[in-house]
Amino acid sequence: MSVVKADAKPLTIVFEDDGLVPNNPLPFLVYKASVDVDNDHPEKTIEGLFGANGWGAMWRNGVYDYLHYHSTMHEALGVSRGNARVQFGGERGKVLEISAGDVAILPAGTGHKLISSSDDFCVVGAYPPGPPMEITRPTPENHAKALKTIPQVATPRTDPVMGENGPLVSLWKRG
Prior knowledge:
Helix content is 15%, strand content 27%. Strands 1-2-7-4-9-3 form a 6-stranded antiparallel β-sheet, covered by helices on one side. A 3-stranded antiparallel β-sheet has the order 6-5-8, with no helix packed on it. The protein has helices spanning 42-52, 140-149, 167-171; strands at 11-13, 28-31, 56-61, 75-81, 83-88, 94-99, 103-106, 112-117, 122-127. It is an alpha+beta fold and 175 residues long. The radius of gyration is 15 Å and the shape is globular. The N and C termini lie far apart (36 Å). The mean pLDDT is 96.
């Protein structure tokens, strides 16, 4: 039996480059209340889902409370416990409430930072195959470098939630 709800569909948002945070022309995706984490091991549930769909290099933690992005890698954030307000897309982006069962998928360059969270907030992070993740702070120099690296980041072959036929695969087709 799948841990993904049958009617799971992501919300999509495209964040504009703000001059310091490059963001990405590919849409940021959020699956709201789409993963069943109502069990004793919600982190393992999300890790199993991401792993089955080819996303790895996983970790468990929260979201950093300073603005950053990843210019060499796309990132999936699966909320296993609690809830948080996270600003996505940089200072001119959007603050979204994410909670247990949600998955946010950030194309390379998408700015994000924690605004507030419940005490039990926990996220499982994962990445598609590729180079190691690097944390990049928004500076003019980093922005200039990121504009060169982001277009080189490979499009994932699978959606971390819905697999090889998931929405990410069609939504992130380039040119």
